[in-house]
Specification:
six-stranded parallel beta sheet, Rossmann fold, L-2-Hydroxyisocaproate Dehydrogenase, Chain A, domain 2, binds nicotinamide-adenine-dinucleotide, 319 residues, 43% helix, alpha/beta, 2 domains, three-stranded antiparallel beta sheet
């Protein structure tokens, strides 16, 4: 714990909404000494780098530039946010996966060639399939390929629960696991505030535990991306901050437990698929995946989520 990493360079591939916001979050935290933005749209990367550089006097000394794959050499973490953002009208999640897998076929081998010792952090959607693709295409050990997974869904879930129960979201311990998407699973059986399960918390607080309200909180969590996209066209602040949390856990070697996507082998019979479970992250990437003690319904829902993802991954023909 606490070892200083040699490099504090982070490269972000894809300087769009998510990539630029991630860079901004890293800069405001003073977490790294160098941020490199790489994008096929070179002017976009250049413009974002300029704007971010003008933030430095308000933040921390940081070198920021628009670069290329050669700049991945020595980076501690390369964050990939490149790719198509959303489903085309009438398109399926599989279509999006195929489009972004083709983009990853260009990007990932280049990153791995220049930086065989770094960590890959994937945000492009569908993020679990893209994390699996990045692992296959990079040839890196699986613990060094991480997807943002359900870090965002978990944050949304905790926020909504905090509003309902009237406590700070930092005091709500609850996870969304499985796919970052429609088959994701809320772990109600272990959700707690100060170790008190939610029905117990309600009883102690003189509240009624309202199952319909809980179901609605999960529905709002699962549908949040669609709702925000309908309102403003994209989502990026929360995921930008979440990516910065993941980078921070790695750079500071914190063993922080976050719900990220990683290769799962042998959990409740689930194998050879990337999905989210709480995982401790340190300077080596995924230190270990915590084997949550789910109830039978949650286990069944996890298996179904894994199956959804396996079906998509199989069609990407990554072997
Ligand atoms: P965006 O369109 O604003 O940015 C994508 C960027 O990728 C563009 O600047 C584009 O030029 C670049 N790009 C495309 N192909 C490239 C290539 N071959 N090499 C380098 N750059 C390339 O999109 P966005 O809103 O930033 O979203 C980016 C991705 O993040 C999407 O796949 C989106 O679905 C995903 N996303 C994930 C989460 C999450 O929780 N994981 C949340 C929000 C968005």
């Amino acid at each position: 714990m606490g070892t200083q990493l040699h490099s504090t360079r982070v490269v972000i591939i894809g300087a769009g909404n998510v990539g630029a916001t991630c860079a901004y979050a890293l800069l405001l935290r003073g977490l790294v000494t160098e941020i490199v933005l790489v994008d096929v749209k070179k002017d976009k990367a250049k413009g974002e780098a300029m704007d971010l550089n003008h933030t430095v006097p308000f933040a921390y000394p940081t070198r920021i530039w628009a670069g290329d794959y050669g700049d991945c050499a020595g980076a501690a973490v390369t964050v990939i946010t490149a790719g198509a953002a959303y489903l085309k009208p009438g398109g399926t999640r599989l279509d999006l996966a195929k489009t972004n897998a083709d983009i990853f076929r260009q990007i990932v081998p280049e990153v791995a060639r220049h930086n065989p010792d770094g960590i890959l952090l994937i945000a492009s959607n569908p993020v679990d399939a893209m994390t699996f693709a990045a692992w296959k295409l990079s040839g890196l050990p699986s613990q060094r390929v991480i997807g943002s997974g359900t870090i965002l869904d978990t944050a949304r879930f905790r926020y909504l629960l905090s509003q309902h129960f009237g406590v700070d979201s930092h005091s709500v311990h609850a996870f969304i696991i499985g796919e970052h998407g429609d088959s994701e699973v809320p772990v109600w059986s272990l959700a707690n505030i100060a170790g008190m399960r939610l029905p117990h918390f309600c009883a102690a607080r003189g509240l009624t535990y309202d199952q319909a309200a809980m179901d609605d909180i999960f529905r709002q969590t699962r549908e949040a991306a669609y709702t925000i996209m309908a309102l403003k066209g994209a989502t990026y602040y929360a995921i930008g901050a979440g990516l910065a949390d993941i980078v921070e856990a790695i750079l500071r070697d914190q063993s922080t437990v976050l719900s990220v996507s990683s290769l799962i082998q042998g959990y409740c019979g689930i194998n050879d698929v990337c999905l989210s479970l709480p995982a401790a992250l340190d300077q080596g990437g995924v230190e270990w995946v915590l084997p949550m003690n789910l109830d039978p319904q949650e286990t069944e829902a996890m298996c179904q989520s894994a199956q959804v993802l396996k079906t998509i991954i199989a069609q990407l023909k990554l072997e």
